[in-house]
Amino acid sequence: MENSITVCEMDEQSILILDENDNLQYDDVYNDPNWIKAMQSKYDSITWNETWELMLLLLGKQTITTCWVFKLKPSSHDLPPWHKA
Q: Which candidate, 75, 72, 80, places its Cα nearest to that of 21?
């Protein structure tokens, strides 16, 4: 099956990517506690690993954009899929 995605630009700095094979919609992600937990887990991992740090933006510089990819990952042993952000 060919992968297809939906890209929803949330604002100038953030992009949301949804895998259409998972039948996800924007409201599904932002109103579901499972997705909120997945996002928090990813954020905590980035913070704990010191992947980046917040700092003042220098004059004349631009911020980097963020991109969130949401995917339902299959589980083993006939368990429900897990939410990955």
A: 72
Better-predicted residue by pLDDT, 27 or 12: 27
Does the pLDDT of residue 8 top 70, yes or no?
Answer: no
The pairing of beta strand 5-9 with beta strand 14-19: antiparallel
In sequence order, the 6+-apart residues with CB closer than 8 A to the CB of 37 are 83
**DSSP tag of 77:** T
Residue 49: φ, ψ to 5°? -80, 0
Rounded CA separation 38/70 (Å): 9
What percent of the chain stands above pLDDT 90? 5
